[in-house]
Amino acid sequence: MPFARVQEVVERAAGLYVSTTSIWRIVQKKGEQFRELEKRKGRREQVCRERIRVDQKPPRLGCSMDGGMIHLREEGWKELKVGAIFEVELRPEVEHRTGETIELAHAVANSYVAHLGGPEEFGDKLWAEAQARGWEQARETVVIGDGAPWIWNLTRTHFYDSKQVVDWYHAAEHLAQAAHLLYGEDQPAVEAWLKRWKTPLYQGHAGRIAAMLTQEAASRPSLAEELLQEAHYFHQNQHRMQYMEMREEGWPIGSGTVESGCKQFKHRFTGPGMRWSREGAERLLPIRTAIMSQRFDAMWHLLSHSPPN
To answer: Where are the beta strands (DSSP E) in the chain?
Structure first.
C-alpha cells in the first residue's frame, strides 16, 4: 500500500498514529536489510526450503521473464525486469469444445525476482533464485518468455539445458499483426486468415508461416519491411513454438505467471502521480518481492533472529 494508506490502516486497526515520514524511514531501513538478505545465498536457500516438504520428490520447474516500466525522478521511465520461478503441476480440466476431461499444466508455488537495471545482474539474481528453488535437482525445466532477445540471451547463459517456449499469446499477437498488414481493415478477411494459420502455429509449423510471410513480402513492396520483420520473428523462434508438443508433454505454453507479477509490481509502483527516487524504489522492491513470493514472514523472522553485524 502507499505510505499514506498504511498510516490510515495502522491508526484504524491498532489505534496508533505513525507519521508517513516514520513509515518511509522504516521501509528504507527494512528494505535495505531485505536487499542484503537476498544477496546471501545460504539465507535465500533457507527461506526457500521452508516451502519444500522433506518427502517431496524433485519437481518440474519453470522460469518466466518479462519487463515493465517505472518512472524514476531525474531518469524518466526505466525498465523493471521481473522473473518468476515456479513448479509445474498438472490439473484435470474440462475441455470446453469437446467436454472431455484433460490434464493441463499450471504454474504453482511462484516466487519472484525483480531488478531495476541491466540484464546481466538481473540474470545473476534470477539464477540464484532458481538454484535456491532446486533448479539443478529438478526432473525437467522450462523457460517461457516473449520474443525479446535479452530473455533468450539470459536463457543461453543460465538455463541453456532447459526447454524453451515463446509465450503462445505473444506469438498469436504477432500472427494477428501479420494478418492486419495483409488485409488492413477487412475484418472478415483478417479473421479468416487467422483461423487458417493459428492451427499450423499451434502444431509447430512456425517455419511455414515465416516462409509464407517472406513470399508475401516479395509481392508487396510497400509492406515488405514490416512483413519481413514478422517473418523473422517466426523464423528465429520456430524451435520455441512447438505448442502442441509441449502441451502433450505437460508443460504450460503461456507466461501468465510473470505477466501477473509485472502487473502486481506496476500496481504498487506506477499509481497516479508516483515518481520514485532510484534508492527508494530499490529498497521497496525486495519487500514487494518477498510479499509476492509468500516469504515475507520467513525473511522478517530471519532478520529478527540474525546475529548483529
So the answer is: 61-72, 76-94, 101-116, 141-145, 163-166
Q: Write the pLDDT tens digit of every residue in 138-155.
A: 989 999 999 899 999 999
Task: Give the domain ranges of the chain.
Answer: 3-167+254-304, 170-240
DSSP 203: T
Q: Are 241 and 207 in contact (CB under 8 A)?
A: no
What nine digits make up the cell of 268? 504498487
Angstrom distance (rounded) from CA 134 to CA 57:
11
- Structural contact between residues 102 and 95, judged by C-beta atoms closer than 8 angstroms: yes
| Ranges under pLDDT 70 in the chain | 41-56, 97, 306-309
- Terminal alpha carbon distance of the chain: 31
Cα 300-158-126 angle, rounded to 5 deg: 20
Parallel, antiparallel, or unpaired for β 76-94 and 61-72? antiparallel
pLDDT tens profile 184-217:
999 999 999 999 999 999 999 999 999 999 999 9
Grid coordinates given for 158: 543460465
Letter string b/e over residues 141-152, b meaning 16 or more CB atoms within 10 A of that residue's CB = bbbbbbbeebbb
